[in-house]
Specification:
The protein is of the alpha/beta class. It is built from 14 helices and nine strands.
């Protein structure tokens, strides 16, 4: 390998030198033909050859600088768009409330979604709301058994994935929760009602659409969240500061050790927050984050605590004291532990605020890592064959 590199460098140097000698000889012959003395002809040839090669190198250097500037501008543009989407969460919340939608959501029926949409439903299951959250693909492939149910709720922020079309045929009638009124999900003949998120365009990981999905579910279950929503809006600067601090730690830590894991823990409704946080951080940073129920982490994965980073979503619920004790235990074992907590609202409604710092963690860490594309392996809307 070393020989190959050395040979390559030598070949490159000899190539430049050969060009220099050949160009000089040609110019010298031309000048001699024009009656210059040998010294004058050779001197002029050397000077012109040097000037030519210098201009070539300057052009190469300028091209490298141009390419670097273009990349920097592209990165800055992407970062600005990503930041803008997160910063628009308060506006998206305002637009959702302004629409004054009044659809009441049913109990004891399947609530189907993928990714963020599924996690949002999971939060309400652990609030004690009597619904049946299902991973849409697994329900379709393994549980539906070709039968139609009388009613269901289908959640898809885009409403355009192939899986959205599959799901509509599973019910005699269904309620859709989506951000796009003209999507596949919202135009089927068996659609009973559509609850629109009114979150605006979103190109990067789910931020304002996730917040508004939670609001749609709260409103559909007749739970007043205006106080919690106002708290979120007023706390945006604090959430960004917290997210930036966590992102800086992770970035600074990356070159110095092989972390044994990046975990996000939550209990009750905030298990959903942990899952959603892990999803968006993995998408935005290309680093694997795991969202885990705190009690599940305590049953084994805590053995990886040494040299790991744990972000624990705290809430004033039944698991609060256990969470405090676990944090102490894994710190002593060598984990770096951060906590995210909005103590001013109930445990259930804390899911609205607790996710926002993670949007900022993702933004700032992606910026540190110079990552300008969120969806590289696939797109924001996941397409699968039938």
């Amino acid at each position: 390998m070393l020989f190959a590199i050395s040979a390559g460098l030598c070949w490159g140097i000899w190539g430049v030198l050969a060009k220099f000698i050949a160009f000089t000889i040609v110019l010298a012959l031309i000048f001699l033909k024009e009656k210059f003395s040998i010294a004058e002809g050779t001197g002029l040839a050397l000077a012109l050859t040097g000037a030519y090669l210098l201009s070539v190198e300057n052009k190469k250097s300028l091209q490298v600088e141009t390419d670097l500037t273009n990349h920097t501008n592209k990165l800055q543009l992407a970062m600005n768009k990503m930041y803008q989407e997160i910063a628009e969460i308060p506006l998206a919340i305002e637009n959702f409330f302004a629409a004054k939608q009044t659809v009441e959501l049913p109990m004891r029926v399947p609530y189907m979604g993928m990714g963020s949409s599924y996690f949002a439903c999971m939060a309400f299951k652990y609030m004690g709301i009597n619904i049946y959250p299902e991973i849409a693909s697994e329900y379709y492939n393994y549980l539906a058994a070709g039968k139609k149910s009388p009613c269901g709720v289908i959640l898809s922020q885009s409403g355009k994935s192939r899986e959205s079309a599959w799901r509509t045929g599973l019910f005699e009638k269904y309620i859709a929760i989506s951000n796009d009124p003209e999507s596949t999900l919202c135009i089927q003949p068996n659609l009973e009602h559509a609850i629109l998120l009114n979150a605006g365009t979103e190109e990067y990981s789910s931020s304002k659409t996730y917040s508004n999905t939670l609001l749609a579910l709260f409103q559909g279950f007749r739970i007043d969240t205006r106080e919690a929503a106002n708290l979120l809006v007023s706390g945006m600067a604090d959430y960004e500061q917290q997210g930036s601090r966590i992102a800086s730690h992770i970035f600074t830590d990356l070159p110095h050790r092989q972390s044994k894991g990046y975990y996000i823990l939550g209990s009750g409704p905030n298990i959903a927050t942990a899952k959603q946080a892990a999803l968006i951080l993995s998408e935005l940073t290309k680093i694997s984050f795991q969202g885990v129920a705190m009690a599940q982490y305590d049953h084994g994965p805590k053995e990886t605590a040494t040299d790991s980073t744990v972000i624990h979503i705290m809430s004033r619920g039944k698991s609060h004291q256990r969470a405090i004790e676990l944090n102490k235990k894994i710190k002593e074992a060598g984990a770096t532990v951060f906590t995210v907590e909005e103590a001013s609202v109930s445990e259930g409604q804390s899911v609205l605020s607790n996710i926002v710092p993670f949007n900022f963690v993702g933004y700032h860490l992606a910026k540190h890592l110079n990552i300008d594309q969120t969806f590289v392996v696939g797109g924001k809307v996941t397409e699968v064959s039938g």
